[in-house]
Structure formats: structure tokens, C-alpha cells
From TrEMBL:
Native source organism of the sequence: Carboxylicivirga linearis
Name of the protein this chain belongs to: DUF3820 family protein
Pfam families for the chain: QSregVF_b (PF12843)
InterPro entries: QSregVF_b
Length: 68
């Protein structure tokens, strides 16, 4: 995994929607599950949200803590 992706998850903010302005790694898991069912958006944001979904699904949030 590219470490830059983890850094982006701790720095980038959600650009729109219910959680607009929230840092991606702070998005609640049910929101990510909803995106997983609906389909992640195209592009970099979709890739980051899908990665975050996998991190939370597998209990790997500890990977993000040192980067915060």
C-alpha cells in the first residue's frame, strides 16, 4: 500500500454531502457501508473512500493514528 494514501485519508476533507468538511478518516463506518452498497464515486475520492472502507471493515484504524 502506498503510504501517501494513508496520509491523504488523514488530511483530506469530504468535499460534499452529509459529512462535508469532515476529515475522511473521521467518516462513520455506516456512511462507508452505504457508499459500498450504492457504489463509490469515480476518481481519487472513490478510491480513498473504498480504501477507508476496507481499513475500517478489517479493524486497521490503528494504521491511521500515527498520521493524525
Amino acid at each position: 500500500m502506498n503510504p501517501e494514501i494513508l496520509v491523504k485519508l488523514t488530511k483530506m476533507r469530504m468535499p460534499y454531502g452529509k459529512y462535508q468538511g469532515r476529515i475522511l478518516c473521521d467518516l462513520p463506518e455506516p456512511y462507508l457501508v452505504w457508499y459500498h452498497q450504492k457504489g463509490f464515486p469515480e476518481g481519487q475520492l472513490g478510491m480513498l473512500l473504498h480504501t477507508l472502507y476496507e481499513i475500517k471493515l478489517n479493524g486497521l484504524e490503528y494504521l491511521l493514528k500515527p498520521l493524525r
